[in-house]
Amino acid sequence: MSDVKKLYVKTYGCQMNVYDSERMVEALGGNGYTVTQTPDDADMILLNTCHIREKAAEKIYSELGRYKGLKAEKPDLKIGVAGCVAQAEGAEIVRRQPMVDLVVGPQSYHKLPAMEQAVKDGVRALDTDFPEEDKFDHLQARPKAKRGPTAFLTVQEGCDKFCAFCVVPYTRGAEVSRPADRVVAEARELVDRGVREITLLGQNVNAYHGHADGLAGLIWALSEITDLARIRFTTSHPNDMDDALIDAHATCPKLMPYLHLPVQSGSDRILKAMNRKHTRDDYFRIIDRLKSARSDILLSGDFIVGFPGETDQDFEDTLDLVRRVGYGQCYSFKYSARPGTPAAERATVPADVADERLQRLQALLSEQQKAAQVAMVGKTTSVLLEKPGRLEGQMVGKSEHLQAVHVTTSDHQIGDIVPVTITEAATNSLAAVPVKS
Ligand code: 5AD
Ligand code: SF4
Questions:
Q1: Whose CA is nearest to atom 18 of ligand 1?
Q2: Residue nearest to ligand 1 atom 9, measured at CA
Q3: Could you report the per-residue pLDDT of 202-246, keeping only the tens digit for each?
Q4: Which numbered ligand comes closest to the C-alpha of 52?
């Protein structure tokens, strides 16, 4: 009888963690694990963690606390911590939560099967190296089973930018790009399994150098895969938005008209203190060029409020930048001091001031998001259907601009790309009917 064991994976943080979790599940599949949706019947619990803000990291310890009872009932239950908290805290995790059996950093998860075996043999396993070998070369081939129509694909990892607030250069290491031919091969496998839209992932994806012509070169190479209909990429840094990539937004029909281009602040003083190495005017110039390349491009971004030294005027400059750019969707955060980063040593803005700024910024950003949604009403676009809707005769998918769309239809299937007319807009979703042919 085969020894089937159950694996419960909980993923925190960014899309790269979603991709990594998928690959970890596949890797542990070779050790006889299949996925379960609940921790209660799991033989192994794996938390794939995020260290970007303090709250995200602390969540892991409270989640681990919740498994104490389970572990007491089931001593064979294995508990693992993967991802950026594992990388940043290493053995400290085991000190705080001795029931943790396994700690694996983002660059070492190809070693999970061996580590799981070691734990089975009674040895606690800890690996937070940045190994010489490429983990992707050591991961087993991806399974051939059919899957949903959208997928993430990591093409670049790490960051050399060293923004003063950010742990990523420490947790994910230096920038590394996967060679374009391997990325294309993995994309082909995904497409053979039913994928129609691929989002290329990297902490600094537009610094990708695994193709002689950079990320634009990779996008063009991928666009030759016949059944791949849509390509996206995230996250980008303004300083790496080169001409070829901007031009691809004008000329590559498979590249979707959406761009996540974080600026973090609209104040030159704060951008300098953040070590962003660009000004607000540099950012405006890039946005102008993108809008000239693709007039309907929907922009998204990240902002941090309450960065050390941020004055009322600096914050007003951020609001002004937001008004001038006009975003379709944005993420905004209160500054969180991260140990080991340069900004962690600096005097902080009072919490109530940062709270108030965050509220004002979020109010402006949601107004813009709502306006972008309403502007879609009456327009035609295409929707890639991802799942059935809650109502009979309805399916849900994403527009070209990455908006969630509920399409009234009984004639289509998951994976279809349907031309639609948008009929209604809400803050977080749109309603549409298929265009009559
Ligand atoms: N505090 C608050 N937000 C942060 N981010 C990164 N580091 C911090 C921090 N220390 C935000 C940035 C980044 C996004 C992924 O998280 O806006 O773009
Ligand atoms: Fe962090 Fe992004 Fe700055 Fe790199 S570019 S240090 S990942 S915020």
A1: 302
A2: 336
A3: 999 999 999 999 999 999 999 999 999 999 999 999 999 999 999
A4: 1
